[in-house]
Design a protein that fits this description.
- This protein has 14 helices and eight strands.
- Helix 5 (about 90-100) packs across helix 6 (about 120-135).
- Helix content is about 40%, strand content about 10%.
- The radius of gyration is 21 Å and the shape is globular.
- The protein is an alpha/beta fold.
- It has a four-stranded parallel β-sheet with strand order 2-1-3-4, sandwiched between helices. A four-stranded parallel β-sheet has the order 6-5-7-8, with helices on both faces.
- The chain has two domains: about 10-150 and about 330-340, Rossmann fold, CATH 3.40.50; about 155-320, 3-Layer(aba) Sandwich (Rossmann fold).
- Helix 6 (about 120-135) links the parallel strand 3 (about 105-110) and strand 4 (about 140-145).
Length: about 375
Amino acid sequence: MEPKDYDAIFLASFGGPEGQDDVLPFLRNVTRGRGIPDERLEEVSHHYRANGGVSPINAQNRALKAALEAELARRGIDLPVLWGNRNWDPYIPETLQKAYDDGHRRLLAVTTSAYSSYSSCRQYREDFGMALEETGLTGKLEVDKVRQYFDHPGFVAPFVEGVSAGLAEVRGKLAGGSAIETAGSAAPGTATAAAADAVHILFCTHSIPTADAEASGPRNREFAESSAYVAQHLAAAEAILEATGESSTPWSLVYQSRSGSPHTPWLEPDINDKLEELAAAGTKGVVIVPLGFVSDHMEVVWDLDTEAMDTSLGLGFAVVRVPTPSVHEKFVAGLVDLVCERTVGNNISDRPAVTDLGPWYDVCTPGCCANLRGAKPTIAGSDAKDA
């Protein structure tokens, strides 16, 4: 798109409960329209309950909002940062209404999701489209969105640092014999160079239904494994490995956080199943890379730091989980660069991408990341009826 004069940035995220009393209402929001009874929701609430009913995502978004504001101020860019969530307070419709009441008329959205799929891109565009209709602001308040940034240098750079540090730490543990002693496969201090190199990198992301994966991305392009969502993760992982000089190190793309009917095919393998497979094959150490996530929210804290970590330690692995981008200075600067690609003031004409798939699109084409459950109003699409 041509640069525009935006008057605010809208940071949009998933949202999460902030206390035990919030858990069920939050889960009702997440699953609305599916007819799931509270009894079933309570069964799946244990990871929130175990953390006091608090998801870390809201605190992380407050920190990201503050970091964006600081970076904008450092560059002399006078754009306020608004914040709204899909499933919890502050909600997107309320934030849009307040933005309009405060005099804003043209917003540029930045979402906390880097990849292309229904839930990670189109659903946000639907959230904005439906919120504009709900508030009566359609035609009065304009909302655009920055491109998906899975291969923007600002998103990839923190993972490059994390993978390098993670590999060094795991190899150091193996060289010291600690993981081998835990597994009971060798006496203390007898780790060999071969064992120290027996490390596997697991790039991990949220699983989604296979049908949604195949519907991700524009219809006029072909992607690895017939999915833009999968192809983007594979390409980002390869770029990270090349940047770290670790292209020959064994690695896999794995998935987590599957939900829904067991009869519906979802992307596999699950990280825990892959860990079992690696242990049987003689792998000694693993580096877990939360490649699909911007920050350490509940799917990272529970599914990786609790469940996958327990599995890893139970199998005797030397294991490290590397950080998410969070408020890493390069990530924050990269998000502001994405804003500057689209603004008249402080415009950045260069559109960097570290994979051959990008740079991704400012405006989604009709049918991109299709909603297989039925079309809804959207923003940032080339056809309002089907984009």
